[in-house]
Structure to design on (189 residues):
């Protein structure tokens, strides 16, 4: 996953938390926001939203606290990825107005101690043959066995690389506070 993609995920999390990242924000005509809206654009400097006739403003301290909470939650989410297994589905689509599905793969993503390992469960609607699934489980077991040997030079190297990757990711998430101009866009019930 590229840093650009990771930043867009963080920006989406900030937006869901009620924070905007600078610039004008488009507002639909059916929006509950009212006031000095011209052509459906909320001015970039606006820090107001009206809910049932009441103007709500967020102080700089409250805005900083919300931003800190979003960043702390992202750090917690990143840590959880290393502790829990999950199922992920990847879908490839054609570009354009009417995209069609080219391919679909479903993976069981499991932690290994130095990252994660993907075990293919299904390709399209066809499950993976039992022998292939067993082979992948054996590879996962071998990776876990390797992770238990701290004297293995390959494992020490993998651990160092993994720690650096996690540190770089944590630094990237932490600097998001300084990389963006965070502005309060409003509150929605």
């Amino acid at each position: 996953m590229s840093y650009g993609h990771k930043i867009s995920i963080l920006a989406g999390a900030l937006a869901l938390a009620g924070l905007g990242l600078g610039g004008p924000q488009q507002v639909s005509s059916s929006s509950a926001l009212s006031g000095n809206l011209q052509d459906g654009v909320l001015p970039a400097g606006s820090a107001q939203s009206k809910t049932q006739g009441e103007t709500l403003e967020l102080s700089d301290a409250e805005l900083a606290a919300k931003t800190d909470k979003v960043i702390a939650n992202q750090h917690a989410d990143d840590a959880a990825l290393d502790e829990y297994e999950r199922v992920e589905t990847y879908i490839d689509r054609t570009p354009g107005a009417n995209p069609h599905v080219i391919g679909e793969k479903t993976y069981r993503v499991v932690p290994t101690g130095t990252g994660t390992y993907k075990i293919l469960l299904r390709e399209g609607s066809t499950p993976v043959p039992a022998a292939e699934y067993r082979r992948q489980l054996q590879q996962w077991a071998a990776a876990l066995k390797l992770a238990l040997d701290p004297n293995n030079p390959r494992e020490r190297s993998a651990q160092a690389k993994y720690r650096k990757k996690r540190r770089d990711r944590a630094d990237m998430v932490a600097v998001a506070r300084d990389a963006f101009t965070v502005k309060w866009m409003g509150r929605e019930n």
In short: The helical segments are 3-16, 60-81, 130-147, 153-174, 176-179.
